[in-house]
Design brief:
Radius of gyration: 16 Å
Oligomer: single chain
Shape: globular
CATH superfamily: Glutaredoxin
CATH class: Alpha Beta
Strand order of the largest sheet: 2-1-5-4-3-7-8
CATH architecture: 3-Layer(aba) Sandwich
Largest sheet: 7 strands, mixed
CATH topology: Glutaredoxin
Length: about 180
Amino acid sequence: MAFAVACSGKNTPSTLDEWQGTDIAGNIYTWDNLIGNEANVIVLFSPDCPLSQNYTKTINDLKQNFSGQDVHMTVVVPGYFNNDEVNTFKTTYQLDMPIVIDKNNTLINLLDGTITPEVFLFDKTGMMIYTGAIDNWAVDLGQKRQVITAYYLQDAIAATLHHEEVKIKKTEAVGCFIEQIKSEE
């Protein structure tokens, strides 16, 4: 994967291939664990962000709608949340997918993630094919549409599975800003 960014800090991965994280059960994840399916979704959620909480149902529904198809979904949570907070979030919102706590926000920074919720869709080669909002329900903080008229992530996954070009490749995510974590030197 040729996706690289400059990062500061000792032993900080500079490419996605070098990234490693741990899920809330203690399992180690690498970039290869997150990609490899026809469509691979990384969802940035913060347990304390109201829009993240609101969008858990949408993500659960998408996982269910694409069940049995070659789609893998992983939730990534900023590293300033602990296992108890994340477990409570997972249980409360019935998230049935891996949840990785991104210690030091390394993966989040490599993806240029800044907002929760924010999604990233990769094809089976690891190429990013969509990034941004899940849909157009949230217009701005505290401002939501009555009716959703654009299903960005759903449409991008469907196009990917049908080997079609994703029409909308990037949108602006609306939500809570991700706090930066100072790297340990």
